[in-house]
Design goal:
This protein has helices at residues 14-31, 38-57, 62-72, 75-85, 124-128, 136-149, 155-166, 173-203, and strands at residues 33-37, 97-104, 111-117. It is mainly α. The chain has a domain at 14-128: 50s Ribosomal Protein L17, Chain: A (Alpha-Beta Complex). Helix 3 (62-72) crosses helix 4 (75-85). It is flat.
Length: 210
Amino acid sequence: MRHCNRKGRLSRRTSWRKATLKALANDLLTYQRIQTTRAKAKALRQFVEPIITIAKNDPDSVNAKRRVYAKLCDRGVVTSLFGELAPLYKDVPGGYTRIMGLGNRRGDGAKMVVIELTKRTISDDDLLGIIAKEPASKKKAKKGKESGKGKTKEAEPKEKEGEARHAAPAVDIEKQEERAVEDVRKEKAKTEQKKISQQGFFKRFRRKSI
């Protein structure tokens, strides 16, 4: 009996499910950390970890590369897997991925997670897009050097010209007054139209005199 065996189907047909897992696996091996739903992450773990095991056990085997390529269909990902990622897991018996919860997705309420490789060639700062900040002393020294080198007699008029260029254009006072008067007229016209429409609307519901 096939009880409780419908796991990891992702509500997809076979070809559609294979294509989804292939795309997720390529992204995971390329970027080494991706964000997806919990159901897809669990199905992806079962799909990716055997591939990493094949690459780890036979890093120089052509047959192993062909087997992995048949599942991933991307030569760049296969070469990076066998050349960079597989040697990192040489002494690791299993558990090549890690799943961390993020909460529910806004809209449909799906449970979102982050799935990542436990050993990576990309640093956490690069993955998160964090730029290393320079200390304040170095920044001040750089500013002092740049200001000392760039001081010339010709620099002062250029700065003044730049200030003049970025200054706000002068507006005539008469034009401002005309615009204010037009705005007041428009507001009055709107209020009068509202009054007329309300009178016409309430006339229908007035009780006739006896």
